[in-house]
Structures are given as C-alpha cells and as structure tokens.
Amino acid sequence: MSKGKKIFAIIFGIILVLFLAVVGMGAKLYWDVSKSMDKTYETVERSKKSQVNLNNKEPFSVLLLGIDTGDDGRVERGKAIDAVGRAQHLHKALHLGLRRGKQLHKAG
Length: 108
Hints:
Elements: H1 3-40, E1 60-68, E2 78-87, E3 92-99
C-alpha cells in the first residue's frame, strides 16, 4: 500500500471512530432521557367532564396563557400568564396577572 493510501486510511478510520462515538453518546443520551420521561409521565383517568353551572354561582377559574403584543398603546410587551376566577365567599370575580420573567419570592 502506498504512503498516501495509508494516511487516507488512518484519517478515515479516526473520523469513523469519532463519528461512531458521537452517535453512540447521542443514542445513550436519548435512551436515558426517554426512560426518565417514561418514569415521570402518568396518565390520569377521568370519569366525567366537569361543567360549571353559572346559575348556581359555583366557583370556577380560567387560566389564560398568551403573548401580549402591545396593542392599544400598552408599553409592556411580552408573555403573560393571567388567571381569572370567581370566589363564592367573596361574591366577586378575581383577576391575577403575572408577567413572565418577573422574580417572585415565596414568603417564609
């Protein structure tokens, strides 16, 4: 075998070994993540869909997730999390708006 073919074979072998190592590590990472996700996911069996009867003034809440585009002259733009609910004991509706990215501190 000539000197050029030997160098080519060595370089090709090194590249092949590195490629197989990267593919092997990627497959191992995928396998581990997939196994971990299978362990953490649990299906929930629901017997019926719950419906709120507004005539009985039952308490309920709605979670609104979205993106604030800044329309109507609002200065703040970004992603928003809003929760709207009706509290029976207070006899009024409550609106809680949290801007994503803000740091909230737990009391205690």
